[in-house]
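Subject: Suppressor of cancer cell invasion

B.,
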Amino acid sequence: MAGVAGAAAAAGRSRGRGRARAVRTGGRAGRTDGQTDGPVSLPAAPPPPYPSSRRASPAQRGGRGLSIDGRSSQSERSLAASPGARPIGARGGGADRRGPARGGSRAPRTSAALRPRPDRHRGRERRVRAASGTVRQRLPRSGPASRALGPAEEPRRAREPRTELALKETMSSGGAEDDIPQAERKTVTDFCYLLDKSKQLFNGLRDLPQYGQKQWQSYFGRTFDVYTKLWKFQQQHRQVLDNRYGLKRWQIGEIASKIGQLYYHYYLRTSETSYLNEAFSFYSAIRQRSYYSQVNKEDRPELVVKKLRYYARFIVVCLLLNKMDVVKDLVKELSDEIEDYTHRFNTEDQVEWNLVLQEVAAFIEADPVMVLNDDNTIVITSNRLSETGAPLLEQGMIVGQLALADALIIGNCNNQVKFSELTIDMFRMLQALEREPMNLASQMNKPGMQESTEKPARRENPHKYLLYKPTFSQLYTFLAASFKELPANSVLLIYLSATGVFPSGRSDSEGPYDFGGVLTNSNRDIINGDALHKRNQSYKEMHCLHPGDLYPFTRKPLFIIVDSSNSVAYKNFTNLFGQPLVCLLSPTAYPKALQDQSQRGSLFTLFLNNPLMAFLFVSGLSSMRRGLWEKCQDYLRKINRDIAQLLTHSRSIDQSFLQFFGDEFLRLLLTRFIFCSATMRMHKIFRQETRNYPESYPQLPRDETVENPHLQKHILELASILDVRNVFLENTLDDY
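Prediction pasted inline below.
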């Protein structure tokens, strides 16, 4: 696919993925121009977000995080001690797109721009001695590196030829190699060893299992440990490395960029948003300290590509943290860098890099409503779960104790806004399933920030897999892995945002494979909409996730959200095993007045992510002042509390809804779904067809929920606050 993934791959033809966890940035990074970098103070991340009952990772025994100032902080110790978590990226270890990673099928493409990007290498054979004997290894020069050797480290002797070459090439002018003190020679030798070792481990991330929580932990611990040593070493010996090795600022920036990728990668593996703040800290420090400022003066296009990729990765992290002001600055800088790059080197990837700019511009403009301050500046709103986000459970409410543990977020909609192979629907659902980061943006640059040793009062975010246009086999593989490792009393959530696949002909039966489903990708070119109806009518569509395909996974609590033009196919579910099962289904069609906005994301998903923005959009509003926005948000919280009471006090509601209502994320999704359904049933333009309404399995009791007079009164009052009451029907019950 085009986009950051395609542009980055075409620009440098290298692979990998970076992700992340907590660090702090302080201290000084020396400059070759004689100046000194200023300190960058960062807050500590929260303690390990996993229950102590889970098995600790090998990283707890050896791996450590690192900080720019070289000290070990609470956040770093938390990272080292974090027990296992499941990967959330479809390419959990940054799998090479040329083929499948070991132990699993080829992964769907996800956020390719952020995978660890090793330099392009031509391998050269060299024999090294390992603990178990002699091993032949292909060592990197400047391209995708080989796998790491394993626990046994390479002996120092194998590093000498490269170190000697570095000494000869970077020796001070007028001096002789024999004049170099032994201590300085050893410093360069040790640095080269750590640098090579860090590259090998980093490049090996793409070979890690893409799913499951046990295999990747020890490798991450070793990788963080080596980067800790490398970063501290270059800080402590900067002058010697400047004089004898010729260490340049862009090389320091590359190390910092790799650390940022590691922390972002760890966020994707654990879903803990506090790790995003730490990835942002390293990326921000690179920009503030101008590590890449001298790259454009060198006649080496591959170095400029490194800089462009850094910008692309930084932009994605800022998008996930809702730092839109920073995103706009980065986009402008990236645009200038791309223009300079294509002008100087006349490269063939100019179109792809320009497409990156177009995609990110469309992504940040996808929200249909702007919230404005009094000075007309745009207010950035967060859609993650906050302290007051979900309605509280009141005394006497009888709900289940299930907890959302895993989520599969699948995007396969054609022509929808995306960036870095993350569609806008996937992005919105991703944020709806995360808590607000504990490291607030306002605290990030406060000096003397004290590290908190208190444990978080609330449990961690659910683990997530992000699957962009997966094939059926890929989707099923990740689904089976998540199902296998689902803890007791936990829920698996499946979110499907995909093109609908309709049955090719009428069938005498009404089984789980007779109503179609949603599209999965194929190994051939993307199927267009017309081709779906030209298959032999005697067969079912192969590249489709049918409702029956999910039956085996209903042996455990399952919460399904389907946003598709054929979502009603999942209305014909059968609960075979008696476990809690709920399906929230989008409308299969929207009024013509709203269909033109489909590229900017689904209205149904927008209601689940930001119900007030969706309400404003269907009411014909495109902007709002901050004061009125906050007033409406307060009233919407009141509506959510009343919806929660309607659900828990209903005598005819299916018990599956109540079983899921004990979890904060699922409770908020259910209340937003009912608000969405009630709003559409009262809206004049949605009343034209019943397929414009959301549905659910099991069905909700309408008179007690989506058509409850008390709820309808609340919606009319909210419309009155916004002065849009005329677009809603006053007496909706009379029409039924």
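The first strand starts at residue 124 and ends at 130.

T.
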